[in-house]
Amino acid sequence: MDKKLIGIDLGGTTAKIALLNKEGDITEKWTIKTNIEDNGSNIVQDIGNSLNQKLAELQVKSDEFYGIGMGTPGAVNFEKGTVKGAYNLNWVEEQNVSEDLGRITGLKVHLDNDANVAALGERWKGAGEGGANVVFVTLGTGVGGGIFAEGKILHGVRGAAGEIGHVTVVPENGYDCTCGKKGCLETIASATGIVRVAKDLAKDFSGKSKLRDAIINDEEVTAKLVFDFEKENDELAKLVVDKISFYLALALSHIGNMLNPEKIIIGGGVSAAGDALLKPVIAYFETMVFPAVRESTKISIATKGNDAGVIGAAWLALPNEEA
Length: 323
Hints:
Elements: E1 4-10, E2 14-20, E3 26-33, H1 37-40, H2 43-57, E4 65-72, E5 75-77, E6 82-84, H3 97-105, E7 109-113, H4 114-125, E8 134-139, E9 143-149, E10 152-153, H5 186-189, H6 191-203, H7 210-216, H8 223-231, H9 235-259, E11 263-267, H10 275-288, H11 291-296, E12 298-301, H12 308-316
Helix pairs in contact: 2-3, 4-12, 6-9, 8-9, 9-10
């Protein structure tokens, strides 16, 4: 009988848990609330209990699984199976996640950063199509990324590889970033950054624009609204999308020129804009990269959505000969 996989995608609000076959197809999935009280001391126990309960309900034994793969926010030591600095989980100090979850479930646990496992999910079963060189960029509340190069996920010497959101794209007079720098990509191309750009450009915009009216009237403005107006040919919205596309393409061109991946995949909530984002980004990207890169590196939108994390996490548990 073929063994199966377990994937866990831990977030600040919920933990997504899935059972998968070794081909990466989800056969069962559910979510539990992430309890961040008491310094997040109950999180791992809650996940372990939920998993054990589900396996009991399904009358499945733990020895039918290769193991557990798990993605988590924070600075992950994937070799030791620890994480620290996951502030949205209240995990300030180092947590022995792999050891603790392994003790509760009786299974070997493989841990990595949540952006990395999302990259793995898209690379394995999504838009990355199994390529050996794939970069994943997630545009959400912040901007994150994961790099799959020469068949391996890159971690860097301190686990900080793939921090694409903190590539400097505006070296002078850039917006302040939460990381302490100025002009990071995250300050422009994240969902919050797009709104910031829209409000800034609206100050000097004198033409007719529904977006400008919404901003002036102090209505709720979101990244989705900006793209919706852009699709209606709203002049201010078109300026905003053009600006963020330029800076996103600039950051992606650095990745393209440096790594020459087969694919750069854009995911996260902002990627729901689809071609309205993809087309201008590609147009700028192609003017910024080395000719060989322009011919070989393709940019596309992610296809696995919220399942990318659990799929990529599960991949971590595959034996090397299967991966």
